[in-house]
Write a structure and sequence with these properties.
With 246 residues, this protein is α/β, with parallel strands linked by helices. The chain has one domain: Rossmann fold. The protein is 46% helix and 14% strand. The protein contains 9 helices and 6 strands, in the order βαβαβαβαβααβααα. Helix 1 links the parallel strand 1 and strand 2. The longest helix is centred in the middle third of the chain and has 29 residues. The two termini are 28 Å apart.
Length: 246
């Protein structure tokens, strides 16, 4: 499933799911723009890719800020090439009772989780239209499918990603661009470990009796970015160990 000659952008590529997706796409031949707020983490992802003989470069900036988006994409195009694969992975989580969610809480989580991917996709799509080929992979959440008590602002922002995916898929299917979303189930990442949940207990109660790994999501990302997935668009591609079945 070669992506040789194509440039991929992965937001939140410095750790967890984003790092695993960056490594996978590089293994598949893409030149990867590892985009993160943390320079040290992004550099480590680049180091891992280069150690395997892949090509990657770190880009540091806010993937929800329009000025930063334009500036960084300009550099990516100059240094790696036009963006033909986009993985909208950067995001934050949140745990708060519904009646305690402030306007500031809501604005922050919507700006990062939903508006950022919207603006970044808007800026990257012209490259794909010019090439007549593109892959957009949005990382949503199984919480968007099931709802999540105490996470209304988070789960609704991710529900917006699902709707964004479906709308973009219909608008750009005829131009050779596919758009899909992966809603991870319970994935063992640094962000999960830092949240107020019992990772091991939740994993033990799941159908597979284990948490997912970032590489599980990365494998699906690699497939959706490939030529083999060229007739798949607008889909919610669940990778959740049986947590959500329908």
């Amino acid at each position: 499933m070669s992506l040789k000659g194509k440039t991929a952008v992965v937001t939140g590529g410095g750790s967890g799911i984003g790092r695993a997706c960056s490594v996978q796409l590089a293994r598949d031949g893409a030149a990867v723009a590892v985009w993160d707020l943390n320079a040290e983490s992004a550099a480590e992802t680049v180091r891992l890719i280069e150690a395997e003989g892949g090509q990657a470069k770190a880009y540091i900036g806010d993937a929800s800020d329009r000025a930063s988006i334009e500036q960084i994409l300009g550099r990516v195009r100059t240094e790696l090439g036009p963006v033909l694969v986009l993985v909208n992975n950067a995001g934050i989580t949140g745990f708060k009772a519904f009646l305690e969610i402030s306007p500031e809480d809501l604005e922050r989580i919507y700006r990062i989780n939903l508006m950022g991917p919207f603006f970044l996709t808007q800026a990257a799509v012209p490259d794909m239209l010019a090439a007549g080929w593109g892959r957009i992979i949005n990382i949503s959440s199984s919480s968007a499918q099931t709802g999540a008590m105490g996470m209304t602002h988070y789960s609704s922002s991710k529900g917006g990603i699902v709707a964004l995916t479906k709308s973009l898929a219909q608008e750009f299917a005829a131009q050779g661009i596919t758009v899909n979303n992966i809603p991870p189930g319970f994935i063992d990442t640094p962000m999960t470990r830092s949240s107020p949940v019992d990772v091991d207990a939740i994993a033990a109660a799941s159908p597979m009796k284990r948490a997912g790994k970032p590489e599980d999501i990365a494998a699906a990302c690699g497939f959706l970015a490939s030529e083999a997935a060229g007739y798949i668009t607008g889909q919610t591609f669940g990778v959740n160990g049986g947590r959500v079945i329908y």
